[in-house]
Design brief:
Elements: E1 2-8, E2 11-17, H1 19-48, H2 87-98, E3 107-113, E4 119-123, E5 128-129, H3 135-146, E6 154-159, E7 165-169, H4 191-201, E8 210-214, H5 261-272, E9 279-282, E10 291-296, H6 300-309, H7 313-326, H8 333-346, E11 368-369, H9 370-382, H10 389-393, E12 419-426, E13 429-437, E14 443-450, H11 457-473
Helix pairs in contact: 2-11, 3-6, 3-7, 3-8, 3-9, 4-5, 6-7, 7-8
Length: 477
C-alpha cells in the first residue's frame, strides 16, 4: 500500500493509495461471482435431474487469488551504520558561515548526532539568546508530554440567565471556524455545527436576543511582556483570549488579526443562529447552566503540528495555557511560561538558561540557549521525550511546506525532506532549529540563533539556509 501527500493550508495530510488493495478486492469479487454463478448452474442441473433438496451440498472449489507479490516499502528507516560526521571537518565547513557578517556578532549554534547524542559542533551553545519563534519547539514538547496528544479542546454553549440568552464558553481553542471547512486549520470545529446543536436544544420558537461570551478560562494580561505595541493586533498576533474564531482573524483566511477576538466569536455565533441583531457582550456563564451544544478541536498532536508548520503565535499561546491548566497554574502568560519550563524539566530536558515571557517567541524578553533547542529536537527524534513525535512531523520541510516552503532548491543533496526545521524571525533576530539528514544518511539535530543581526533579512536567512544545506550535502569525514 502506498501513500500520497496533500498540501493543505501549510500542513500536510497523508493519504493512503489503495489502488493495489482495490485490485485485490475486485479480483476477489469477480472470482466469487463466477463461483456463485457456477454453483447456481450446477445446483439447477442437479435438481432438474431429480436430485434431492435435502442436506446434500454442491461442492465449490476454494477461490484462488493471484499472487501479487510483496509490496515495496514506501518509507524506510535510516541506516543504523551510517557514518557520523567528523566534528573537526564539520566545524571547518560550518564555522565560516557562523562568522558571516549577515548574522552579526551574537551567533550561537549546536549540532548533535541524534543516534549517539554526541555533540559535533558547539558554538556558544549554552549562551542564552533571543529565540524568536523557535520558542514554539519548547511549547510543543511541553504540550505533547503533559497532555494526551489525542485529547481535544472543547467549546460549548450553555443556557443564559434569562430566556433568549445563551453563553459561548471558550475552552481555549482558537481554531473554531466560521466556515466549513476551516480555511486555515484542517479538522477544526465549526460555529455552524455549534449553532445547529443550540437551535435543536432550545424550545421551539425561542428567539436568541443576547449572547454572552465567557473567556474566563484564561487570566492575566492579554499581551505579554516584551511584545511591541504594534504586535497586537497585527497580521501575526492578537490579544490572547480563551474564546476566538479562525485564529483571532478578522475574517476567515485573512492575515489581519482582531483586537476583540471574544466579541468576534460571539458575533459569529449570532450570525450562525440567525440572530444577527442579538446583543453580544463579555461575561460569565451562570453556575450549573444547561449545556446546549459542544464542539471539539482537532487532537492536540494535530494542533501542535499546525502551530509549528505555520508558526501560529495564537495557537502556540493557547497550547501553553492548556499545559498551565494541566499543571494547576494560572492560564496566563506568566503561568504558561512557568508550566512549559516545568514540564520540560519533568521530561528530562536541561532548561538551564531558559527565560520565558510568552510561549510563542514573540516576546523579546525570551531567552533560550541553542543547546536547549537541540536537546528538545533530539529528544523528540530519539524517543526519549516520549510522546513528542508530533513535534517532528510539524516541522516545516525545506522547499515544500510551512514557513520553509520557499526556502529550498532542486539539488538532490538538499532535496525536500532532507531539512526539516522551525524558523524564528524578529527584527534583528534570525533562527533555525530542526533536523537534517547528511549525504551519508546520518540524522543530525541542529540549532543556530543569531540575535544581533544588522543586515538584511534575506541575507541572514540565506546564511542559515546554507548552514543547513551544508550539513545535508556533507559527509564531513
Amino acid at each position: 500500500m502506498g501513500v500520497g501527500t496533500i498540501a493543505s493550508s501549510g500542513s500536510t495530510i497523508v493519504t493512503a493509495n489503495y489502488g493495489r488493495f482495490r485490485r485485490r478486492i475486485a479480483l476477489g469479487v469477480i472470482a466469487l461471482v463466477v463461483l456463485l454463478v457456477g454453483g447456481g448452474i450446477a445446483a439447477a442441473t442437479y435438481l432438474r435431474d431429480g436430485g434431492s433438496t435435502g442436506s446434500q451440498v454442491v461442492a465449490v472449489p476454494d477461490a484462488q487469488l493471484p499472487d501479487l507479490g510483496r509490496a515495496t516499502p514506501v518509507l524506510a528507516s535510516l541506516a543504523g551504520d551510517a557514518p557520523v560526521p567528523d566534528p573537526g571537518v564539520l566545524a571547518n565547513q560550518l564555522t565560516p558561515l557562523l562568522n558571516n557578517a549577515a548574522l552579526g556578532s551574537g551567533v550561537s549554534a549546536e549540532v548533535v548526532d541524534v543516534a549517539s547524542g554526541k555533540v559535533l559542533l558547539d558554538h556558544g551553545a549554552t549562551d542564552p539568546a533571543t529565540p524568536a519563534s523557535t520558542t514554539k519547539l519548547l511549547t510543543a514538547a511541553a504540550a505533547l508530554t503533559t497532555l494526551d496528544p489525542s485529547d481535544t479542546l472543547e467549546t460549548k454553549v450553555v443556557a443564559g440567565a434569562s430566556p433568549g440568552e445563551v453563553v459561548l464558553v471558550g475552552g481555549g481553542d482558537p481554531t473554531l471556524s466560521r466556515t466549513a471547512p476551516s480555511k486555515t486549520y484542517p479538522g477544526a470545529p465549526t460555529v455552524a455545527d455549534l449553532a445547529a446543536q443550540v437551535l435543536a436544544a432550545m424550545p421551539a420558537g425561542t428567539p436568541v436576543t443576547r449572547i454572552v461570551v465567557d473567556s474566563s478560562l484564561f487570566s492575566g494580561p492579554l499581551t505579554a511582556s516584551g511584545w511591541a505595541p504594534g504586535d497586537s493586533p497585527s497580521s501575526y498576533a492578537a490579544p490572547v483570549t480563551a474564546t476566538a474564531v479562525d485564529g483571532a482573524r478578522v475574517s476567515p483566511g485573512s492575515d489581519a488579526r482582531s483586537g476583540q477576538p471574544g466579541l468576534d466569536a460571539g458575533s459569529a455565533l449570532a450570525d450562525a443562529l440567525g440572530a444577527a441583531g442579538a446583543t453580544v457582550v463579555l461575561g460569565e456563564a451562570p453556575a450549573g447552566a444547561k449545556t446546549l451544544g459542544t464542539v471539539h478541536s482537532a487532537p492536540i498532536a494535530r494542533l501542535v503540528e499546525q502551530a509549528l508548520s505555520m508558526s501560529d503565535n495564537m495557537l502556540a499561546e493557547a497550547l501553553a495555557r492548556q499545559v498551565a491548566l494541566a499543571r494547576h497554574l494560572p492560564a496566563s502568560f506568566e503561568g504558561s511560561a512557568q508550566a512549559v519550563i516545568g514540564a520540560l524539566k519533568n521530561a528530562g530536558v536541561d532548561t538551564s538558561g531558559v527565560t520565558l515571557s510568552d510561549s510563542s517567541g514573540l516576546s523579546r524578553d525570551d531567552r533560550i540557549p541553542a543547546g536547549v533547542l537541540t536537546g528538545v529536537i533530539k529528544g523528540a527524534a530519539d524517543g526519549s521525550l516520549g510522546s513528542a513525535s508530533a513535534l517532528l512531523s510539524g516541522l516545516p520541510v525545506a522547499g515544500y511546506d510551512g514557513t520553509l516552503a520557499d526556502r529550498g532548491d532542486d539539488d538532490p543533496a538538499t532535496a525536500p525532506g532532507t531539512v526539516r526545521a522551525k524558523t524564528g524571525t524578529l527584527q534583528g533576530v534570525h533562527a533555525l532549529a530542526g533536523t537534517v539528514v547528511t549525504a551519508d544518511g546520518r540524522l543530525l539535530a541542529f540549532a543556530v540563533v543569531a540575535d544581533a543581526a544588522t543586515g538584511s533579512e534575506a541575507a541572514a536567512e540565506g546564511t542559515l539556509d546554507q548552514f543547513a544545506a551544508t550539513m545535508a550535502g556533507c559527509g564531513c569525514r
